[in-house]
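Can you give me the bound-state structure? Components:
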Amino acid sequence: MFSLTQRFQVVSNQAITFSLVIIAFVVASSWIQLLYPSNVFQNTTSAIANVTPSMTLRTSRYYGSQNGKPKENVRVSFDLESDFSPLFNWNTKQIFVYLTANYNSSGSINEVTFWDDIITSKDKALVQLKNAKSKYTVWDLESGLSGKELDFKLHWNIQPWVGPLVYGETDISGDHKLTVEARKKNTESGDAEKVSKRKKKRTKKQKVN
Amino acid sequence: MSAILDEIQKFLVLPIDFPSQKRTFELQQNILLIGAIAASIYGFLTQSLYNTLICYGVTFVVTLLLVVPPYPFYNKQKLQWVQPKLATNL
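Here's the bound-state model for the whole set.
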């Protein structure tokens, strides 16, 4: 504390040390607020309804097609209702909400994301969707998705101002299990024919060019 | 150029006396501790991290203003050095 610079350094060091204490308090208190008065890890509910899949065949590599073989791409439309306002406290920056589906794929369980959203404030924490379209188109890496049973789940992820991310899953109600209808064999071949025709056309065009 | 910088550095030492050094150290520690606790509680009650930040920032600035400048009352108890005696019996 002898000279000017020493005094300045001591004060800033002390301030930084105590700011770590403040950060620890903020993180701990926000975790406690997630558990009391109500445990958001168990009591966050959501309701899903009217899940209807729509399947298309894509031949682009960007949609999972390999060697020109058409790939089954599934999109869904759904109604969703959930209230995420209990997840907001003084350490919540935003909440990432995502709708996933589990299905069995040759022995292992796959989890794919159909839709997600970022909730930035408590005013927007009430999610009420009618006939919403999935953001992402989904395909299975190995085989097709037809005939698979999708089990939908709604997850949330709190992104705090300070501290680690907090993950959780809502208690989903409603008809959240869905079996993707198997495509009929003849239509499949028909689709394949269409696709091959389209391909031929494209190659012709390229030759002309 | 470096000579001028040395001059400025010598001027900016601005020392304070020994008892004040001890006092300012304890003072800044106590103010910052109280400020940190107050900022945490105030922010928690208003549920706003912004308030915590402002409150703690004000505390920091106040501490700097109280402790860093060499006020005259930090320099009242200067060490009295022994005066050199003239050597008489050589």
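A couple of observations. Residues 38 and 55 of chain B are 8 Å apart (CA to CA). Chain B touches chain A through 32 residues (CB under 8 Å).
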